[in-house]
Write a structure and sequence with these properties.
This protein has 216 residues and is an alpha/beta fold. It has five helices and twelve strands. InterPro entries: FTHF_cligase-like_sf, LUD_dom, NagB/RpiA_transferase-like.
Amino acid sequence: MVSARAQILGRARRALSDVPKTDPAVDVPIDRPQPRRDLSGEQLVDLFAEQVADYRAVVEKVPEPEVAGAIAGALGGAAGTGLARILVPPGFPAEYVPDGVEIVADGPDVPVGVLDHCDGVLTTATIGIAETGTIVLDHGPGQGRRAATLVPDLHVCVIHAGQVVAGLPEAVSALDPRRPQTWISGPSATSDIELDRVEGVHGPRTLHVVIVTAGG
């Protein structure tokens, strides 16, 4: 009696019978774009901002004294309405929180129902990856728990220019593998079989990234 595994492998062998065999010890050349390792710090930040914006996220580069103003603009400009109820995780810099908003202090005991009634969430980040426009959170101080960055409809993320690295190897080597991580590449989005893009299905509908530069 032939097992199902043997039948599947037999079909695979027959389907590949006319494919030229290669020596598994010989590397097959793959044309991959070369990573950008020759960029200066400012160029890395510019590339990161360009890649983040390519995901339909909003990106701003501002000096430190203007961070609170940029966040206020992000909160007031989303969907053309002023947002007032904002989730703030422990450790988020108090000087970055703009005036005139209702602060909901997050914590492990805050139920998801409360998160759902927040208009947005403010977080910091651990690393930004220039080549992919990816933001990595390890949920340390200022970054909140994972639910906090998934439930509210708006995520305003503050990242310093010095936290931007060139590519994945640099990011992985800098991250602590023992910590939980959330990798964010643009706002939450998905597409159905007809490729109609829908945002906010399994995370924030809007991602607003504030890059803190050295100027100012």
